[in-house]
Amino acid sequence: MPHSAFPPLQNDTFLRACLRQATDHTPVWLMRQAGRYLPEYRQTREKAGSFMGLATNKDFATEVTLQPLDRYPLDAAILFSDILTVPDAMGLGLSFAMGEGPKFEKVVRDEAAVAALAVPDMNKLRYVFDAVTSIRRALNGRVPLIGFSGSPWTLACYMVEGAGSDDYRWVKSLMYSRPDLMHRLLAINADSVALYLNTQIDAGAQAVMIFDSWGGVLADGAFQQFSLQYTARVLSQLKKSADGATIPRLVFTKGGGMWLDDMNTLDCEVLGLDWTQNLGRARALVGGEVGGPGKALQGNIDPNVLFAPPQVIEQEVIKVLESFGPPHTDPLKTGPTHVFNLGHGIHQLTPPEHVSALVSAVHQHSRKMRTTARAV
Q1: pLDDT tens digits, residue range 208-222?
Q2: Can you give the pLDDT at residue 376?
Q3: Which member of 47, 199, 217, 262 has the lowest number of beta carbons within 10 Å of its beta carbon?
Q4: Which residues, in sequence order, are CB contacts of 17 under 8 Å at separation 6+?
Q5: What is the pLDDT of residues 18-67, one digit of tens each?
Q6: How far is CA 157 from the centre of its chain?
Q7: Residue-range domains of the chain with CATH
């Protein structure tokens, strides 16, 4: 659907920060911001009957995507879906048992299983694209909508293991013993993810994010060969604009901070960091200078900070903002910018009122920092 057919944006702070443009405050959104910590989400999921019942119904997906925005003045919405929709569309049979993580009916561990894989027909994922369009309409220009996918490597982990894993024994065994098969699997995944994200853009997504949730479990060298290379293959195929508007591309590798230098070569606008990394050091490494090229940074407060009292949350927010350093304020030039987020997804037991304290602290202190920066 043409992006021009949707209402104009009222708050484009997130998109401008992604493009390293000066903003009035540091934008904030949260990974898994629509989720089990919200009582209204739990009620909607109960109505839907299951997680997949929720994710495959555009009306339910729209409802839960907007729930956190009705509570908090967040600067972006993210599509409510799951990272494993693509391998599900490949015929692996995704299911979610109550209280358990995702599981696949079929696993991919040998030559025959890899040979049976192909880029899926996007019509099998029509429910995702219908949800994107529905959410974009329902947002009515309030904030931008982020689409997303798992990275080729992260999808491969689930496809080979058959579920989440503590030791990644099956996927690493395949990687080390049959790297040819792993490369074939990752190439199919990369081309599938690229088509999937481009179709989300066509449906109305205004930014797209690649979650390399398990990139950090790889050894140095293996990360570059089996994760980074295929994230780059996705990015090389992504649309960079829609109806004249730039579509920022974000990449988040959990546990990947040691490879920031390598990730700086990726053709994307934003790099996400987990809570183990120092934003100031990351800014010095990849953030660039005013007027020059660089990457915007996203992150990276520890999600467990949200279990602390509100006054502690405020202090920790300030530490993260200050660690990034003085905000970029020149409206005529690009420069180092920051999108505030958690270092990973919000925990399901997080008190909802603590999220209010975090969002409020980000907006208030980041505005104060800009006033100070302009006065210097």
Answers
A1: 999 999 999 999 999
A2: 66
A3: 47
A4: 23, 26, 27, 296, 337, 338, 339
A5: 999 999 999 999 999 999 999 999 999 999 988 888 999 999 999 999 99
A6: 18
A7: 3-375 (3.20.20.210)
Contact 236, 278 (CB under 8 A): no
Could you give the residue numbers annotated as active site? 32, 36, 45, 82, 158
Q: Contact at 8 Å (CB) between 165 and 157?
A: yes
Distance CA 14, CA 28 (A): 8
Task: Please report the DSSP string for 182-203 in residue order.
Answer: HHHHHHHHHHHHHHHHHHHHHH
- Tell me the sheet residues that pair with 80: none
Q: Which residues contact residue 336 at a Cβ distance below 8 angstroms, ignoring those fewer than 6 apart?
A: 20, 283, 287, 288, 289, 290, 294, 296, 297, 324, 325, 328
C-alpha distances (whole Å) from 116 to each of 56, 106, 119, 193, 227 are 25, 12, 10, 17, 22
| Chain mean position to CA 354 | 22
The single-letter DSSP state of residue 276 is T
- Does the pLDDT at position 95 exceed 90? no
Q: What percent of the chain has pLDDT over 70?
A: 98
Could you tell me if 14 and 339 are in contact, meaning their C-beta atoms sit under 8 angstroms apart? yes
Give me the helices (H) in 19-151, please.
Answer: 39-48, 51-55, 58-71, 85-87, 111-115, 126-139
**Mean pLDDT for the chain overall:** 95
Token pair listed for 200? 């989300």
Quick: pLDDT tens for 266-313.
999 999 999 999 999 999 999 999 999 999 999 999 999 999 999 999
Secondary structure (3-state) at 240: coil
- Helix (H) / strand (E) element for 369: namely helix 352-375
